[in-house]
């Protein structure tokens, strides 16, 4: 069989510096130096993932200190995610061209500077600006770490590296709230950002000392039009998914303000953003095809999507991400505002998920040597479905932790197994010179799936909570109109009013709020399990090597 233009190439074609070529026998062996390089890469990933979750826990302290408005709070939370998702693909491609280690170091420097500025931010608007800069740094770091693993590790070492990388993502998504709660309690919210610069300095030194440089051997031209279409399309899509529930999916439900400017139309900005996203991303696809036919370089090589494992695996990754981390939105709300736990106590409970994820990293590598990677993915997804379904049952049953703690651990084990091996499956047939582009595209698919999951599960959570709360208040004898207003206030506060209602003697309304958010969290967990079932079914298209499809 004649090799296709995109068959995996020998690593000798991959430009490296400072070490033997990745395809050498040493690439299959994790020497002490390569172990330390993997630890460095994984810590860089941990930094980015934790920063995406830690801020949510310290928001009340930020509001109290900086007198931030609800609009400013919204942008403090979402500016990072918006910029991060929009730039993943661009920086993944850029890393292939200018050097992956160089891009990682630059990302760490940007992230450190932005974090220091966030720690010192005197106003909410200044903090929003620093969150934008953090998103830029994070987008430089995440796909680059993945492409460094894909280009630099092979065989057994590759399986271990992906297992560690995947479990780090799953674990840090759970550790972030604990870290934020501890910092807010012990030293203040500013140290949620202040902890990053010294860690970044250590990681820069370690990266330069331990991680070998690599880049694509192909000399490729820049595609500014493709980059612009990608950034606009992904930013608009992420904005629409995040803001749909708050601003309205069609008609405006609340004011949308940037600085001193307010959205002037009756129609919500969300459908406008989604229309811009569709037009931009369709334009990007068309532009890439036109440039490919003309023999010119595009932002991303469309031939990557002819690789079944990459194309189908990216779809599975997006679907799985919908269910994988959406429950992390609902569970802390229920634990704190219904069960009465503090932010720190909530963090300690959710860290059980991280323990499961980290514990499964070694198991994932071992299983990967004994069975096909896609089989390990399926085992992980089955564990995730059982775990998140168990979370729903635990919430449904009420008091007691007998169901919740083991369910979270099983869920974490599933995340550690599925995330690591699925990433390996997605990239297994990608040529090494395209590692950055493919890593950026894969990370973007996951990020968009996560945003869609948060949108869907958030809608399930709040719609169910609102309906059940209003019915319960009305059943207690409150007139329907008044019950609706009170229920909406409880929902808008994400259950934060429940403790105050108890203190004011309005126990019926407080109990109604608890019932509403219990039902909403239960339904969100079951919806997440359904998304994971769809993801499991979608793995039926995986497992074939490229040659079988050609």
From TrEMBL:
Pfam families: MFS_1. Keywords: Membrane, Transmembrane, Transmembrane helix. Residues 1-27 are annotated as: Disordered. It is a multi-pass membrane protein. GO terms for molecular function: transmembrane transporter activity. PANTHER family: EXPORT PROTEIN, MAJOR FACILITATOR SUPERFAMILY MULTIDRUG TRANSPORTER MFSC. This is MFS transporter. The chain crosses the membrane at residues 36-59, 79-96, 103-121, 133-153, 160-183, 189-210, 222-242, 262-289, 310-335, 347-367, 379-397, 403-427, 448-465, 524-543. Its main location: membrane. Residues 37-547 form the Major facilitator superfamily (MFS) profile domain. Residues 17-27 have a biased composition (Low complexity). It is found in: Cell membrane. It comes from the Bacteria. It comes from Pseudoclavibacter caeni. One of its GO terms (cellular component) is plasma membrane.
């Amino acid at each position: 069989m004649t090799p296709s233009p995109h068959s995996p190439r020998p690593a000798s074609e991959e430009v490296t510096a400072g070490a033997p070529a990745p395809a050498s026998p040493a690439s299959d062996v994790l020497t002490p130096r390569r172990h330390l390089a993997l630890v460095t890469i994984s810590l860089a990933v941990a930094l980015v993932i934790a920063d995406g979750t830690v801020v949510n826990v310290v928001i009340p302290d930020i509001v109290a200190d900086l007198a931030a408005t609800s609009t400013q709070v919204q942008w403090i939370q979402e500016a990072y995610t918006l910029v991060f998702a929009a730039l993943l693909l661009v920086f993944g491609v850029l890393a292939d061209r200018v050097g992956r280690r160089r891009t990682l170091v630059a990302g760490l420097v940007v992230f450190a500077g932005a974090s220091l500025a966030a720690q010192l931010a005197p106003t909410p608007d200044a903090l929003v600006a620093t969150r934008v800069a953090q998103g830029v740094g994070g987008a430089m770091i995440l796909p680059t770490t993945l492409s460094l693993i894909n280009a630099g590790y092979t065989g057994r070492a590759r399986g271990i590296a992906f297992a560690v990388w995947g479990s780090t993502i799953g674990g840090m998504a759970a550790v972030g709230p604990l870290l934020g709660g501890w910092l807010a309690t012990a030293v203040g919210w500013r140290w949620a950002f202040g902890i990053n610069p010294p860690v970044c300095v250590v990681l820069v030194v370690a990266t330069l000392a331990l991680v070998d440089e690599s880049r694509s051997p192909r000399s490729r031209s820049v595609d500014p039009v493709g980059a612009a279409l990608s950034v606009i399309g992904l930013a608009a899509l992420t904005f629409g998914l995040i803001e749909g529930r708050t601003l309205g999916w069609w008609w405006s439900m609340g004011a949308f303000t940037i600085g001193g400017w307010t959205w002037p139309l009756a129609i919500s900005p969300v459908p406008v953003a989604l229309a811009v996203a569709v037009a931009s991303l369709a334009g990007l696809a068309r532009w890439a095809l036109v440039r490919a036919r003309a023999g010119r370089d595009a932002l991303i090589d469309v031939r990557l999507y002819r690789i079944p494992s990459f194309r189908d695996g990216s779809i599975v990754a997006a679907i799985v991400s919908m269910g994988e981390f959406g429950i992390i939105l609902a569970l802390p709300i229920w634990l704190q505002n219904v069960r009465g736990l503090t932010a720190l106590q909530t963090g300690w409970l959710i860290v059980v998920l991280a323990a499961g994820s980290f514990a499964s990293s070694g198991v994932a590598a071992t299983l990967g040597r004994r069975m096909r990677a896609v089989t390990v993915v399926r085992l992980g997804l089955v564990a995730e479905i059982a775990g998140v379904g168990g979370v729903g049952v635990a919430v449904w049953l009420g008091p007691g932790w007998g169901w919740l703690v083991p369910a979270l651990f099983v869920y974490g084990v599933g995340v550690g197994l599925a995330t690591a091996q699925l990433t390996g499956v997605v990239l297994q047939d990608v040529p090494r010179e395209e590692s950055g582009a493919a890593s950026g595209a894969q990370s973007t698919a996951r990020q968009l799936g996560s945003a869609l999951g948060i949108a869907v599960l958030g809608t399930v959570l709040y719609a169910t909570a609102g309906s059940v709360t209003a019915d319960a208040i009305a059943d207690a004898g409150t007139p329907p109109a008044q019950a609706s207003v009170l229920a909406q206030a409880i929902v808008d506060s994400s259950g934060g009013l429940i403790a105050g209602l108890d203190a004011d003697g309005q126990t019926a309304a407080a109990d109604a709020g608890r019932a509403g958010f219990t039902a909403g969290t239960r339904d969100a967990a079951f919806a997440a399990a359904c998304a994971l079932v769809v993801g499991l079914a979608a793995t039926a298209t995986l497992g074939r090597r490229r040659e079988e499809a050609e």
